[in-house]
Design goal:
The chain is an alpha/beta fold. Helix content is about 40%, strand content about 20%. Among the domains are: about 200-435, Valyl/Leucyl/Isoleucyl-tRNA synthetase, editing domain (Isoleucyl-tRNA Synthetase, domain 2, Alpha-Beta Complex); about 665-825, Isoleucyl-tRNA Synthetase, Domain 1 (Orthogonal Bundle); about 835-915, 2-Layer Sandwich (hypothetical protein PF0899 fold). Helix 3 crosses helix 19 (about 645-655). InterPro entries: aa-tRNA-synth_I_CS, aa-tRNA-synth_Ia, Anticodon_Ile_BEm, Ile-tRNA-ligase, Ile-tRNA-ligase_type1, Ile-tRNA_ligase, M/V/L/I-tRNA-synth_anticd-bd, Rossmann-like_a/b/a_fold.
Amino acid sequence: MSVDYKSTVFLPKTDFPMKAGLPELEPKLLARWASIGLFGRMRDVAKGREKFMLHDGPPYANGHLHIGHALNKILKDVINRTQFMLGRDVHYIPGWDCHGLPIEWKIEEKYRAAGLDKDQVPVVQFREECREFARGWIDIQREEFKRLGVEGDWDHPYTTMTNAAEATIARELGKFLLDGSLYKGVKPVMWSVVEKTALAEAEVEYHDHTSVTIWVKFPVVTAGCAEVEGASVVIWTTTPWTMPGNRAVAYGPEFDYVVVEVTEVAEGSLARVGDKLVLIKDQAEQVAKDAKATFKVLSTIKGEALAGTVCHHPLKFHPEAKGGYDFPVPALPGDFVTTDTGTGFVHIAPGHGEDDFLLGKEHGIAVPDTVQPDGTYYPSVAVFAGQSVLAQGKNGKYYSPVAKPVIEAMTVCGNLLAHGKVEHSYPHSWRSKAPLIFRTTPQWFVSMESHGLREKALKAIDETRFVPDQGRNRIGAMIATRPDWCLSRQRAWGVPLPLFIDKMTGQPLRDAEVMDRIVAAFEQEGSDAWYTSPASRFLGNSYDPDQFEQVFDVLDVWFDSGCTHAFVLESGEWDDTQWPASLYLEGSDQHRGWFHSSLLESCGTRGRAPYEAVLTHGFVLDEQGRKMSKSLGNVVSPQDVVGVQGADILRLWVVGSDYSDDLRIGPEILKTQVDIYRRLRNTLRYLLGAVDGLAEAEKLPVAEMPELERWVLHRLTEIDAGLKQACHDFEFHGWFNELHNFCAVDLSAFYFDIRKDALYCDAPDSIRRRAARTVMDLLLDALCKWLAPFTCFTAEEAWLARHPSEDGSVHLETFPVIPAEWRDAALAAKWETVRAVRRVVTGALEIERVAKRIGSSLQASPALYVEDTAVTAALDGLDLAEICITSGLMLVKGAAPEGAFTLSDVPGIGVLPKAAEGEKCQRCWKVLNEVGKHKHDSVCGRCSDAVDVP
């Protein structure tokens, strides 16, 4: 009569579910963390430790989070949590950028939709609407960030629009004012005619744009050399709208130029037979093609021979010019002239280009006012007054409506040689997406040179750690060549430049007491005080308000965010902060954004960078490497991923990716992360079941453990060392891949596979079982703690399953201390050999299983042939049947017979499969001759003894 021994097998027991249900579980854990005050508890636990301060780069408060936000904040959270678990005091203060055009634009849209003009609204009312808009989105984004498992001081974040922040921003500006490095200047800046303001380089993105091109003749009035008498200098430009602002032409002194005569013209050509033209030699043939003409070279000259040449403006004799273009147009040497495109002459409009402006300034050429803030010509501009330089077509694309009138006017004057179109990369506003223009306007600048700001910033870059290191070169190149920092914006929503201009001298008032009064007012009432208070409040009794002009430009928002280190890390509003920050972490675009502005602000006021290290990550693309867009339908929303699969899946994607480069995400990639997650979860579940009921007295000292357990402990030392290096490098994907392989291969497919027999069937007091349960408890502790920064929800769930508690948390723990003596390189090398041999055995048995000659490996008792004595030495003393999960195994020293199974990468090993002899044990399923010869029926001796254990 057969006996059912199932109840005598020690199967794993756990309530930890196989199916995670993360979308339902995670909110419950978030609520638990809130109820126990987890962040405050973490702060208390960490008191007195070495500080680690990751200063949060503020996202903008104007919309739901996108996948880039999720990547950024999860990576910050991972780093904060790893540093905490390394034993550091981590204080993470999240923040928001609140001022600037995007919010202002939204409020303006509301007014436009209602048919109202926002300029008719009192400025303080308008600013309060902007403030309310920002507050609303801060609340939404805060909950979305928290849902990702991001831990921080969410009850006390920073924003750039609080009174304290605005006062600090004003104070920081005051430092540049008082030391003389802030000045008002007229320089070309990138200007948005849509938003009617100057833009910073960090607010600019480049897209393909189709421009009208024109080749224009400038008739020579005074020849610098005999060869150019009676000729016309030919320029080529992609911005016909800048022609009214032309005041000179530039040439390359070292280049070869030719004077050509037009000898033939094709149908439709604007060239005229007999015209003499001057152009660069290298492009003469191409210009002839563009002009549909044939040229005859009359002479060749060096560019330097053109010195002293003066032309007249091509529109001078236009019937509607009325003297508007009656001025000399000198030819000037320019080191920016190139020979690869165009004509070798650059038309110079000092109001619409930096090279143009500097060359004009060098030669005393005044900057004309041609284009108004809204992109229309001033009334004083002859022929084109009131026309727009930029407009949006019905297809949504921007174009220059004045290009055609310019072409027509040049044709009327007989000075248009040709026209066409070109597609090229062109600067656009990252908000309105409209093309920008260069426009020379009065603005407030911080000098890069007068007080050594460039030199200080470059030195600070050398002293900063960059991860990856190429970030150093990128920001360094930008700082080395950048112009003076333009701080002023012609808008309403922002911190006003708290400046007064002396009407007599035109100079800003530099008075520390005045600045102190301004800062004090901002601290009490916010920067709205600048608009609601009389100037006398700030100027005091020492100055007559009638003699000063109050500035109402607002500060560049990059100056706001560049000051966050001052009002977050230094203000004292938060306890236990540290300046400089340990780390700044943002996307690689912030080399020209927040990293850049923070560096300049801090170097200008403190002489060093506000950070010790800078980490950058790439951008998120779809699975095909394309930029995400609604039109392509490839946008991955973090809210959707969290709602369907859970935040831990998104966190796994972050840590499993090489974020030093652009990252990809999509359904298949997320499916891979789900598979990885499932393996990790199953590992935790198996361990929880395996250590059920484990008592302290059952645990076995390491010295008494079998080799297999000591090999697992050795692997723990390797994983631990890899984690410490990953934390130092802020680079986790390689280590996480190793951890996953450790769980899937070393543990599940090897160690657990071998030890489940001892775990299930050995008597509770057996050395093998006690050793396995001891090691599995150590494994569970290590894995919960190692996974805590990465899959923060699942690690907490597993931790509480092992350590039930009302207020405990794995996130209050530090990483496990792995004893150095567990490392055993010789043992690891030996077991590498053992595992290689095992692969040959399992490979041979798999063939038998496929052929249905055996059902499971326990039905086999193969012969193992080993030639190498070193291998046999490694196998000596081991229970190879246990390791290979067979009922028996015969080790034969010598060459394998013909027909034995071998693997090419494991030479000298052969296996002859053979069915095990005997009966199947009804408890452990091994096939042994001894089955049925013990106290209990149908079982082996080991199982018979185990059944008797109470």
